[in-house]
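Fold it.
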Amino acid sequence: MTEGIETITQASLSLALDAASLRHQAIARNIANAGTEGFVPTAVSFSSQVDEARAQLSQGRRLDARQLHSMAQDGLRMEPARGADGLPARVQLDSEVAQLAQNAVHYQALVKGLSRHMAILSSAVSDGKR
């Protein structure tokens, strides 16, 4: 049972880090091309996969590391950003910079969580050898 918890925790953190990294790339690309005529900003699309996982969990079904890994491969991608009218959005530099800062804090929190998770596993391993 512990192996399952450890595996799903590590897979969840890995998926979240991959999403944050791709989001950071998209935001940086948008900022770099903010002044380029005709540039269409990009955003990371992932919400449908997360909604599907939530629905699965709310129905009492299990979610394993393989499913999380396939979610990352199938659903984590950059797509053109669309406005409320469905047309390509324009780059809003102040909004992009704010999103970049928010994403950086989110990424740091995920790395800290992964570090703590690994420290717990290390402690469990080292105490088991005594």
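The chain has a mean pLDDT of 83.
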